[in-house]
Design a protein that fits this description.
Elements: H1 2-25, H2 35-47, H3 49-64, H4 73-87, H5 97-119, H6 124-155
Helix pairs in contact: 1-2, 2-3, 2-4, 2-6, 3-4, 4-5, 5-6
Length: 163
């Protein structure tokens, strides 16, 4: 129960405090790290597929409330992403910096790929430009910020390398 409480408080804190308070302060040229994806990676690596699926759905639903025309799209993207990341939990060595950085970058890019594809109504111009100009820098910045947060979770005993 104690471990569950620590995991839940950590990923919710990273997601909501990071997005609301930290993200505007460390914004570089209009690009900020995606703390919800970082939190989802933390949850998936520390708890597994089922909690990450439910957590991804809840994170997406909270974000979807602000955008009613696309209600459910972020929930779907984050739910599927949480399941996929949770399935990778025992298959990757997540204590290696390069593996963690690539995993965070791939998660951000995959989420944005699906989201922008549906949002653009499958038109190439409205899909590729934001993917290249917004998603790639956001993915790199998220990896840069997310790797130390994963190390912090490991040092707090929430995520052990042997999990």
């Amino acid at each position: 129960m104690r471990q569950f409480l620590r995991i839940t408080l950590l990923w919710m804190g990273v997601a909501f405090v990071g997005d609301a308070l930290v993200s505007p302060m460390i914004d570089i040229a209009g690009r900020a790290p995606d703390f919800t994806i970082i939190a989802l990676v933390m949850l998936a690596l520390s708890a597994g597929a089922m909690p990450a699926t439910i957590g991804g759905f809840l994170l997406g639903l909270v974000q979807d409330v602000a955008n009613p025309p696309l209600l459910g799209l972020r929930s779907l993207c984050k739910c599927v992403l949480g399941f996929g990341l949770g399935r990778l939990r025992g298959r990757l060595v997540h204590g290696v910096v390069v593996v963690d950085a690539v995993m965070i970058m791939a998660a951000v890019l995959l989420h944005d790929f699906v989201f922008l594809l549906v949002q653009s109504n499958l038109t190439q111009e409205r899909f590729l430009v934001p993917l290249l100009t917004q998603s790639l820098p956001t993915a790199a910045y998220s990896a840069l910020v997310g790797v130390p947060l994963l190390r912090l979770a490991e040092s707090l005993g929430i995520m052990n390398p042997e999990d």
